[in-house]
Automatic annotation (TrEMBL):
Transmembrane segments: none
Species assigned in the record: Streptococcus mitis
UniProt keyword Hydrolase, yes or no: yes
Source organism phylogeny: Bacteria, Bacillati, Bacillota, Bacilli, Lactobacillales
A biological process from GO: oligosaccharide catabolic process
Name of the protein described by the UniProt record: Glucan 1,6-alpha-glucosidase
Top-level taxon of the source organism: Bacteria
Domain Glycosyl hydrolase family 13 catalytic: start-end pairs: 13-402
Catalysed reactions, semicolon-separated: Hydrolysis of (1->6)-alpha-D-glucosidic linkages in (1->6)-alpha-D-glucans and derived oligosaccharides
Keyword hit for Nuclease: no
Entry GO MF terms: alpha-amylase activity; glucan 1,6-alpha-glucosidase activity
Length: 536
């Protein structure tokens, strides 16, 4: 395997709307991100995954794109984008653009032409039928919307304002590749590919993910755009297993660098139930089983893992699986230590590095997310009590990740001088960047140290992974590289757990506890976590 820069990288996801507002309109923007690059450089990250900033009516917070080659006015201008790329580069930080090519906005010029002119080439850029079948939208309801102007139904697996693109159309594919090359020419560091496993869909056969043409399309994309260039490409693939992930990420396959798989995240939901039937208690045994599978079956020679707990669609890990009250800092550090020392490229979601938590939503009026609003409407119609709905949104809703970044203890957490588009979490006076930077024992410095460990220790790329048999709530594994062995241990519970280290220790790489005392007592205190090098 030829090592690439992204094998040792740590990527930081920025959700622009909520990161930093520079002009007082209550919405985060590109100049705001640029103003915080020194902070991200201090954290040490290698790249920023930038959630969509393209021109958009914002029906789904920018994942509904009206123009791929323009910037949404709320975020700034193309000049602002150029400046962000240039200023990030000065700090050795690359910008990874969010690529949304499964669908566009219904306000994209292609769709406007498609609906108004049945004879236009653009008509075939989308998927039209005279009659709908029973396919359902991920955002609830039918996946088909009747369009009066067009006189037909169009397919939309997300909002009805997000019509799905028809990847069978070769002309459409070439236009997408041209657009990708426009961004590559601007000097970006790669692409994160939104729901990319859906582009091979066959709606008449009810094939939504992993259609037979998915991998041929990706190979074609690779050859037409980023193939042969030193870029990171990561696909969002909810249904992937290790064998499928090899097809995407094996270097010989010439598709992507890596994928996001969500098998561990699906432990947040009750098996076989929609996401709103959440499972708040972490099944640590299942978590160990899943990570062990991905770490051992997706080998370094035939693919690559991504590592993450959080993103813009998920609740805060410290709130759903950690303890965001008496053990907030310690449990946040435990999850970080456990994940970042596995094989793969770690992703940090904004605010994760300071232990931001879920928001205590009280009323539906406080909710902005279209998925949550659609769920609430449907559940109310079915007679589900409002408080039960609000409980689900508080635990699992996407707005939990989207509350404004907490910079300091001033008004609006230093996010904006104006009224923020989404309420700031009321705990911002205690949980913020300024406080974290001033406290040498803060979560921030644990993340900073983990980033540095990845940069300085090449064994993290290639070392074998061995899961250890332990108490149920203890997750422990060894990374072995030749004669070198590194033991990583995390107690993922509020209770003490038995654990013995029976070998001599060479050094402590990182810990959220007094490792010597812990080992002597043969007991892990709640949320203890550490990585130690074992003697040869």
């Amino acid at each position: 395997m030829q090592e690439k820069w992204w094998h040792n990288a740590v990527v930081y996801q920025v959700y622009p709307k909520s990161f930093k507002d520079s002009n007082g309109d209550g919405i985060g923007d590109l100049p705001g991100i640029t103003s915080k690059l020194d902070y991200l450089a201090k954290l040490g990250i290698t790249a920023i995954w930038l959630s969509p900033v393209y021109d958009s009516p914002m029906d789904d917070n920018g994942y509904d794109i009206a123009n791929y080659q323009d910037i949404a006015a709320i975020f700034g201008t193309m000049e602002d984008m150029d400046e962000l790329i240039a200023e990030a580069k000065k700090r050795d930080i690359r910008i990874i653009m969010d690529l949304v090519v499964n669908h566009t906005s219904d306000e994209h010029a292609w769709f406007i032409e498609a609906r108004e002119n049945p004879q236009s080439p653009e008509r075939d850029y989308y998927i039209w039928r005279d009659e709908p079948n029973e396919l359902e939208s991920i955002f609830s309801g039918s996946a088909w919307q009747y369009d009066e102007k067009a006189g037909q139904y169009y397919l939309h697996f997300f909002s009805k304002k997000q019509p799905d693109l028809n990847w069978e159309n070769e002309e459409l594919r070439q236009k997408i590749y041209e657009m990708m090359n426009f961004w590559i020419d601007k000097g970006i560091g790669g692409f994160r590919m939104d729901v990319i496993d859906m582009i091979g869909k066959i709606p008449d056969e009810k094939v939504v993910n992993n259609g037979p043409m998915l991998h041929p399309y990706l190979k074609e994309m690779n050859q037409a755009t980023f193939g042969g260039k030193d870029l990171l490409t990561v696909g969002e693939t909810w249904g992937a297993n290790p064998e499928e992930a090899k097809k995407y990420s094996n270097p010989e396959g010439q598709e992507l660098s890596m994928v996001f798989q969500f098998e561990h995240i699906c432990l947040q939901y009750q098996e076989g139930q929609p996401k709103w039937h959440y499972q708040k208690e972490l099944n640590v045994g299942k978590l160990k089983e899943i990570f062990n599978k991905w770490q051992t079956e997706l080998g370094v020679e035939d693919g690559w893992n991504s590592l993450f707990w959080n993103n813009h669609d998920l609740p805060r890990i410290v709130s759903i699986w950690g303890n965001d009250r008496e053990y907030r800092e310690k449990s946040a550090k435990a999850f970080a230590i456990l994940l970042h020392l596995m094989r793969g490229t770690p992703y940090i979601y904004q605010g994760e590095e300071i232990g931001m938590t879920n928001y205590p939503f009280e009323t539906l009026d406080q909710v902005e997310d279209i998925e949550s609003i659609n769920y609430a409407k449907e559940a109310l119609e079915q007679g589900v009590p409002l408080e039960q709905i609000m409980d689900s949104i508080r635990v699992i809703g996407r707005d939990n990740a989207r509350t404004p970044m907490q910079w300091d203890e001033t008004k609006n957490a230093g996010f904006s001088d104006g009224q923020p588009w989404l309420a700031v979490n009321p705990n911002y006076e205690a949980i913020n960047v300024q406080e974290a930077l001033e406290n040498p024992d803060s979560i921030f410095y644990t993340y900073q140290k983990l980033v540095n460990i990845r940069k300085e220790n090449s064994w993290l790329v290639r070392a074998d992974f061995e899961l250890l048999e332990t108490a149920e709530k203890v997750f422990a594994y060894i990374r072995k590289d030749g004669d070198c062995r590194f033991l990583v241990v995390a107690n993922l519970s509020n209770q003490k757990q038995e654990f013995a280290v029976e070998e001599s220790i060479t050094s402590v790489l990182i810990a959220n506890t007094d490792v010597k005392a812990t080992i002597e007592q043969l007991t892990l205190a709640p949320w203890d976590a550490f990585c130690i090098e074992l003697a040869k």
